[in-house]
Amino acid sequence: YMRVQKHLSFIGQAMACWKEIRSSSWIYPTLVLCIYGFFSMMRPSEPFLTPYLTGPDKNLTIDEVTNQVFPVWTYSYLVLLFPVFLITDYLRYKPIISLQGLSFIITWLMLLFFQGVLAMQWMEFFYGMVTATEVAYYAYIYSVVSADHYQKVTSYCRSITLVSTTVAAVLGQLLVSLAELSYFYLNAISLASLSLAFLASFFLPMPKKSMFFHKNHILETPQGRMGQDTMSNVPSINGQPSCQEDKDAAKSSVISRTLPECQSDKHQCHMLAQLCKDLKECYCTKKLLYWSLWWALATAGYNQIVNYIQVLWDDKAPSQNYDIYNGAVEAAATFLSSVTSMAVGYVKINWDLSGELALGIFSALDAGSLFLMHFTTNIWACYASYLVFKSCYMLLITISTFQIAVNLSMERYALMFGFNNFVALVIQTIITVVVVDSRGLGLKIVTQFLIYGSYFAVIAGIFLIRSIYTIVSIQCKKETQNSSNGSQNIKEQESETRL
């Protein structure tokens, strides 16, 4: 009887705790979203995709994978990104998260049970749908929690994906190296995890508002309204007026009005026109324009490297003849990227003054690591170069994200984020068509990485020249100011002498 009483008491406490979580305005949706994020990123087979496709399970050649299969992801991502970005906000995020979960399942079902180049191209199309709908995962939480918890829930959602990616890579490496598990069963484990993520998406609460199309009341922040009151305290860049300061009157009118939830065509056209206007105003500051330029250029190159790095590894050390450590390398790269990203928050540097120099220097390191990947025949040197490349990119993208976000409201930051990624995808598509696709040059993977290294060398050159120009301009201004002050002091001394 006492044991039954203890069990009932424990169950009662658990139920009370669960009711408290459900009634909380932010804990329950954050918990469910983190569960979704964890299982959607728990894909131990992903570091071994190229060996799986070129192995006995799928029997594709390395040229078919490189020049015919992988390019489809870039094309589908480009086609789907912009409409999905708008539909995500219009449908208020949750249906798009479920769509992402379904696309994950279709992708891995095709990986497991379909054969041939055409089937794998369709598989890449659905994976393009997965990446295009990823915006819903990060935007959802801002529509269901108050601004008081933005920083906390953002850190939870991003951290859980990094943890899950690292755990999945380590698990995959251990299963391949120690248990000698085939890649087929790694994909089966990934499918099971993705199925759990898909189920978790149905437990997410449906948001009542969204960032653009369903703004049925003014968003509240700890400082006041989300927009004019918050942005009035944002510092300008190098003493120049920010976009919000330049357009204060227009911004005030945009933020202060409340948009009723309306399904009319007129309302939707008005919202699209307002989005275009806001996007144009976002690029009114040269500083934001330069950061966005680096974001688009570097992200295009980064996505291209990540998409084809396994092909290069397989070229340097074929999986049929060598023990491969793709999972361990991806885990180490994710960990180092997390460390470098976190380190940015503790470094006290005037990024407005030194940011472009940092972009140039670390982009040069990226270029050097890619050149090393091209010229070396040692797989371990290739692995090490990849660690350097990914860490440098993650460091710079964190700085770039902060520099852009600090001068923008949440809505305008989301616009710039989406547009910068769209431009990056256009650039990546051009690179893919010309360099990779069999209907273009269809270059060998080693030659491709020589071109990618040259690409990042050009990026480094642009921003090093720009940073030198900025430093020289500031120095000239200081010298001019000092000379004018000196002349004024001489005149004052002469006047005192006359007196």
TrEMBL record:
CDD domains (alphabetical)? MFS (cd06174)
Q: Which UniProt keywords apply?
A: Membrane, Transmembrane, Transmembrane helix, Transport
Task: Provide the membrane topology annotation.
Answer: Multi-pass membrane protein
Q: Which residues form a coiled coil?
A: none
**GO cellular component terms attached to this protein's record:** plasma membrane
Which GO biological-process labels does this protein carry? pyridoxine transport; thiamine diphosphate biosynthetic process
Q: Where are the transmembrane segments?
A: 21-39, 72-91, 98-119, 125-145, 157-176, 182-204, 288-305, 325-347, 359-381, 387-406, 413-436, 448-469
**Could you tell me which Pfam families the record lists for this protein?**
Folate_carrier
Q: Where in the cell is it found?
A: Membrane
Q: Which family does it belong to?
A: Belongs to the reduced folate carrier (RFC) transporter (TC 2.A.48) family.
Protein name in UniProt: Solute carrier family 19 member 3
Which organism is this protein's natural source?
Answer: Chelonoidis abingdonii (Abingdon island giant tortoise)
Q: Top-down, what is the taxonomic lineage of the species of origin?
A: Eukaryota, Metazoa, Chordata, Craniata, Vertebrata
